[in-house]
Design a protein that fits this description.
CATH topology of the largest domain in chain A: Rossmann fold
CATH architecture of the largest domain in chain A: 3-Layer(aba) Sandwich
Structural class of chain B: alpha+beta
Strand content of chain B: 15-25%
Mean pLDDT of chain A: 93
Oligomer: heterodimer
Mean pLDDT of chain B: 92
């Protein structure tokens, strides 16, 4: 038989038909499908029992209740809110939800490192053991102290409130140095304005939960609030009840401004002017709480100072035509009628509150701005027991023993804190970190031998970045306790890595600006992954190495023992109660009944993720010179006040560097909800949230009003050179009506030089372009805007 | 068969998102990524390539300063309930994406998917993303992958599943407890995470459920309702400009 074309086709068709009838091709297809999904590059997560571990988040100041999900007790797969937490009731912020990306970050430091080459040379880091690392630093600290130079040791610690603050304070007192600073937070401003007006250095608190009318001056309630959990919970409650009016006074159409019931768009830096003008209207119309003012307030009427000189009071000052809505409207570039309407509304509402400084980063307001906002609350009679504004109550934790000071400590303590050795020091000095760096950068009275940095990344997150750089040149040894290879750790001479937030025992002392008391213990969700050490334990070990009175001032063997001691003290007061379920009204004035037996019982409950709370405290009696709430702040020395209004809230702007000719625009750096700008770098999960009009590839955008863009010849997406009095950067332009004409807005949180490919070299560090202005009263750094120019490139 | 033209049980999972409460923080989106093993890349700024099941859209009222306003709109998969088919399930040539008529969840079966992306074209909500690359995690972060959700591979489409695995867990639990699995309810990761409690999830068929009540709120609307895709995700807002935008095509 001849094998022809026909036969070939028959056989071929038969083969195809036959094989389709057989199970073989289906089997192969199934196999290949299965096989193709089992490439080694596709991780196959290990299975196992899933458990939940409650804890408290310490990644920011907010202290939210969280719970982590673990597989087989050793692998964390999710961080979620703890529904039993009375503040957040199960909610969580994006940073908290992405928390595991810090625990499992590739840029974590897993063992102590010593720089063996020049500062900043990453290849020079050599791993050393903990014994070696602690011995080296301990020896250095002992030698410096032995040479009677204890005052030349400094520390910058996190802006977060925790028992670590008290431990550092104890160590520094015993050691003999006053150069202990916290990273700047807006609570610094609430503390300094409280000190000036009440004589008590406890930050003002706002009972947001009890207000029906919230007049917010530039507060970042919805984008990076200091305590996002509480801010979100407040928004939820306001919207649920539907009877709360939120008014935002701000220059940018931020999310808070958009979500507010009313937004008053003003010039940057004119927020306090609006407040003073509202005060003007309220006083003129007699719509303020005259009884409260008469009985509790000093300096509303004209007054006599300690030298017998007659001084102008707040009423006289603010009643002048300078503060009339018509005049202020010109300055703030708003409608005078809008100010009058705002004032009428604010005065009419029974539970109206003026709030400010609810963000977590640098101060935007100077002392006199803050006093203006305080004044509005004074006029409403808010600042009293049970009122909407109060002072942060101390958490009655176990008190630390009195510091034993030997001769070395006594002598070194004679040396003033470095920021107070400057020629022009502030009359009522506060957290003077910027002043400290400024004196170092510009020839200080004494050098700094050792700077320790704890839970902070000043090389990146301090404004006017070159200040830290310049100061660093004068610092002989930089020690970082960071868990991550951040910008500061890269520059360190010695790195003693802390456990990350989810691996360590830590605590949270209060929620910033919350009227109720709050304390929580953050227990580790799993064992530390690397050879790291809780900085609390490291500090205790260092004290031991220094020996003598330094060691005996911190008599605890471990940080856990220290925290237990503090909680025991809290339990002994039998104040407050443990909250382990949602629905508790924390702002209720009802006295709280303790529901714990003793220290051990309270410790057990706190370690299990519950929190301790207490009702808003009574307003303590004022410790001012007059014994009253002072609108005329007598804490400001007469010698420092050239003029009557230097005691009073008044129109005051710290002049920016640079002329309008060269720098016709203002640059404002702002927080956003999708970028973290503090100690932690934006995690990959949150990078997905960054809009493509903020970051495209590695290029960051500035927000510019269409009108301004047109006058500069710029269109959407175009590259431009942004030059300020502090530095220069290439940016792209996002033309948006959210921006005020004449002002350029740059989001904070990008422009990292350290970490990994997910965040490194993306965008511009806004901090490097901003100018820090030292406040003339508190000496703290304020950052409200910087003069800038924007040009096409 | 119901009036909708397809078999339907008494369970129809749906979601209501209150835009007046939503602060646009993105916690829902991050929680979703962590819950569902969503992969990420060094550059996430090319939004057409970025995989996000819960996308946060920015809405603006288009007015000039200072009348300008913005809002954020979280967008999961709408799990369209249109008769017989959702737009995506209708076009899928390999039955990789189907609607489970027992609960209304539109699922996507990765091993079946051939990566033709027809469903992405069909979806009016841009709810679907394609894996253009092999997913990869920095080595230590492989430890945080959840064993409850399979990781995807290059060449397949993925989208929000309404945390389908949580439903399976709830049903298993109900079965073990001896109650009716068909009555089991659960919540999604996004609804759990939301710090302002703007997201409500539940059975739309259950008259007593919060989600069913809210979906009939006078503030309620659905996106692109005119296409009659019958989304099971409702939005609430009292702002007229936001409601008006719901009828626009999403950019």
């Amino acid at each position: 038989m001849k094998f022809g074309r026909r036969a070939f086709l028959q056989i071929a068709a038969g083969a195809v038909g036959g094989s389709l009838l057989s199970p073989l091709p289906w089997q192969l297809a199934g196999d290949s499908a299965r096989w193709s999904q089992n490439w080694s590059w596709r991780p196959s997560p290990e299975r196992g029992e899933i458990t939940k571990v409650p804890s408290i988040c310490t990644m920011c100041e907010g202290g939210c209740g969280i719970q982590a999900r673990l597989v087989n007790g050793n692998r964390a797969i999710l961080v979620e809110g703890n529904p039993a937490n009375p503040v957040t009731e199960g909610g969580i912020c994006p940073l908290g939800a992405a928390g595991l990306q810090f625990l499992y970050a590739p840029y974590r430091i897993s063992r102590p490192l010593k720089q063996t080459k020049g500062r900043g040379n990453i290849s020079g880091f050599q791993p050393i053991t903990w014994d070696e690392a602690l011995a080296e630093l301990g020896k250095k600290l002992a030698i410096v102290r032995g040479e009677s130079k204890a005052h030349t040791v400094a520390c910058i610690t996190s802006g977060r409130q925790s028992s670590m603050d008290d431990l550092w304070q104890q160590l520094f007192s015993a050691y003999g140095s006053q150069n202990l600073f916290k990273m700047p937070t807006q609570a610094d401003g609430l503390r300094s304005s409280a000190l000036l007006t009440t004589g008590i250095a406890s930050p003002y608190t706002f009972a947001l939960e009890n207000a029906t009318h919230v007049l917010s001056f530039g507060s970042n309630l919805l984008e990076g609030a200091a305590a996002p959990g509480r801010a979100f919970a407040a928004l939820r409650q306001w919207r649920q009840n539907g009877n709360v009016k939120l008014v935002q006074v701000e220059s940018r159409c931020s999310l808070t401004a958009s979500k507010a019931d009313q937004w008053l768009a003003v010039e940057p830096g004119a927020e306090a002017a609006i407040a003073l003008s509202i005060a003007h209207v309220m006083i003129a119309g007699n719509t303020y709480d005259a009884d409260f003012v008469k009985n509790n307030v000093f300096g509303f009427e004209d007054w006599t100072d300690s030298t017998g000189k007659r001084r102008q009071g707040f009423k006289t000052l603010v009643s002048s035509p300078t503060y009339s809505p018509e005049e202020i409207a010109k300055k703030a570039k708003v409608d005078a009628a809008a100010i009058r309407a705002l004032a009428k509304d604010f005065a009419a509402q029974k539970n109206a509150i003026a709030v400010w400084n609810l963000g977590h980063s640098d101060l935007a307001f100077n002392t006199y701005d803050e006093l203006a906002f305080v004044a509005l609350n004074v006029l409403k009679g808010n600042i009293k027991t049970g009122g909407l504004v109060n002072l942060t109550a101390d958490i009655p934790l176990g008190a630390l023993p009195a510091v034993e000071k030997d001769a070395l400590a006594e002598n070194a303590a004679q040396q003033k804190r470095l920021d107070l050795t400057r020629d022009k020091t502030a009359p009522v000095p506060q957290n003077g970190l910027y002043g400290f760096l400024d004196s170092l950068a510009h020839g200080s009275k004494y050098p700094i031998e050792v700077l320790m940095v704890h839970e902070a990344n000043p090389a990146y997150s301090l404004m006017e970045s070159r200040l830290f750089q310049a100061a660093l040149d004068k610092i002989k040894m930089l020690v970082s306790f960071s868990s991550f290879m951040d910008e500061t750790a890269c520059l360190a001479d010695l790195v003693l890595p802390n456990h990350t937030a989810l691996e360590r025992l830590d605590d949270v002392k209060g929620i910033p600006a919350a009227s109720f008391s709050y304390y929580a213990v953050s227990s580790p969700i799993l064992k530390p992954l690397g050879d790291t050490k809780n900085t609390g334990d490291a500090v205790l070990a260092l004290a031991g190495k220094i020996g003598g009175t330094v060691a005996s001032s911190v008599p605890w063997k471990t940080y856990e023992e220290f925290l237990k001691f503090r909680v025991k003290g809290l339990a002994e007061t039998q104040k407050g109660a443990v909250a382990d379920k949602a629905g508790i009204r924390l702002t209720s004035a009802e006295p709280v009944k303790p529901n714990f037996k003793d220290g051990d019982d309270l410790w057990k409950k706190l370690k299990a993720g519950a929190c301790w709370y207490d009702a808003p405290a009574e307003m303590p009696s004022f410790k001012t010179a007059s014994g009253k709430l002072e609108l005329a702040c007598q804490a400001i020395p007469v010698a420092a006040a050239a003029d009557d209004h230097m005691f009073l809230p008044h129109l005051f702007t710290i002049k920016l560097a640079g002329g309008e000719q060269d720098f016709p625009l203002l640059l404002v750096a702002h927080s956003t909800g999708y970028l973290t700008s503090g100690y932690l770098a934006n995690p990959p999960f949150m990078n997905k949230l960054i809009p493509d009009w903020t970051l495209k590839g590695n290029e960051e955008f500035v927000d510019v009003n269409p009108q301004t863009a047109q006058s500069l010849g710029l269109s959407q997406g175009q590259s431009a050179s942004l030059r300020t009095t502090q530095g220069e950067a290439t940016v792209r332009v996002n033309v948006t009506s959210a921006a005020r004409p004449g002002v350029v807005f740059l989001p904070k949180g990008l422009g990292h030089k350290a970490y990994d490919e997910y965040i490194q070299n993306k965008g511009t560090n806004a901090n490097s372009l901003m100018e820090v202005l030292l406040d003339p009263v508190s000496g703290m750094g304020t950052v409200w805007a910087t003069r800038a120019q924007l040009r096409r490139v | 068969m119901s009036e909708k033209g397809h078999a339907q049980s008494g369970v129809r999972f749906g979601m209501v998102i209150d835009l007046d409460k939503c602060s646009g923080c993105g916690a829902c989106s991050v929680a979703c990524q962590a819950e569902n093993n969503i992969s990420f890349r060094p550059d996430e700024s090319e939004k057409l390539r970025s995989i996000t099941w819960m996308e946060i859209y920015q809405l603006t009222n288009g007015k000039d300063y200072p009348d300008f306003r913005q809002a954020f709109l979280p967008r999961p998969c709408m799990h369209c309930d249109s008769p017989h088919h959702s737009p995506c399930t209708f076009v899928c040539p390999v039955n990789a994406t189907t609607r489970d008529e027992n609960n209304g969840i539109v699922t996507h079966i990765y091993p079946r998917c051939i990566g033709c992306r027809y469903c992405m074209v069909a979806c009016p909500y841009h709810a679907r993303d394609f894996n253009w690359w092999d997913p990869s995690w920095p080595k230590p972060m492989e430890s945080m992958l959840s064993p409850e959700v399979s990781t995807r591979m290059r060449g397949v489409v993925e989208k929000c599943t309404f945390c389908h695995h949580r439903m399976l867990k709830a049903r298993s639990k109900a079965y073990v407890d001896g109650s009716d699995p068909n009555k089991a309810t659960y919540t999604t990761a996004c609804a759990d995470a939301c710090p302002t409690k703007a997201i409500t999830f539940g059975n739309l068929q259950d008259e007593k459920s919060e989600v069913a009540k809210l979906s009939k709120d006078p503030r309620a609307f659905r996106i692109l309702a005119k296409l009659q895709t019958e989304p099971k995700v409702y939005y609430l807002s009292k702002q007229d400009w936001i409601k008006k935008l719901s009828d626009n095509a999403l950019k």
